[in-house]
Amino acid sequence: MDDLGLYAIFDGHSGREVAEYLQSHLFDNILNEPDFWTNPKQAVRRAYKATNDEILEKVVGSRGGSTAVTTILINGEKLIVANVGDSRAVLCRDGVAKQITVDHNPATEKEKDLVESRGGFVLKRPGTVPRVDGQLAMTRAFGDGKLKDHITSEPDIKVKKIDDETDFIILASDGLWKVMSNQEAYDRIGELDDAQEAAEELIEEALSRESYDDVSCIVVVFH
């Protein structure tokens, strides 16, 4: 029997409903896909879309959405990571922090082109960050029914092997990454053995740096 570890950050905006729905349903939808074990990338992609369709139909009207970064650890050896939005996963190995998710930022050419190909636009007002249709500071999210034609819940997915040199993975909302680089986060907790202590240390450091966004963090230690 396979041993599964399920870890996620859901960072809601304009209410909590979408993030709470993801917490209750997204992993179930992924693991219930019939080809999860043979084609996990395809299964995760379908489950993300199906969950977003459920949210748009049952949970929210024109407002409310959430980012997601999900991690499935299989037998302590294989890691399936997917994300939508600007929450991030950073894999820490042999002293080096490597970001393995994509920040779906409207400022990047690829994501801007994606929005425009769906009939939307990216607007940056003075003193603010670029936003889809002048409203949402990310190009991919669950929910956000008012923008559903111009954004997507299509995830970026990576499959990684966990070996003896892999120390831990950090999952965190953008409130952490706005004030700390990937390597700074690794260096801050690299000597800690307790995952809970490490996550709390990163949150406290982000708050001490006056992060103005909410900060959620999980650290998964492999060995």
Automatic annotation (TrEMBL):
Alphabetical list of InterPro entries matching this protein: PP2C (IPR015655), PPM-type-like_dom_sf (IPR036457), PPM-type_phosphatase-like_dom (IPR001932)
Presence of keyword Transcription: no
4Fe-4S listed as a keyword: no
Cofactor(s) this protein requires: Mn(2+); Mg(2+)
E.C. numbers: 3.1.3.16
PANTHER family: PROTEIN PHOSPHATASE
The protein's name: protein-serine/threonine phosphatase
Organism, scientific name: Prunus persica
Taxonomic lineage of the native organism: Eukaryota, Viridiplantae, Streptophyta, Embryophyta, Tracheophyta
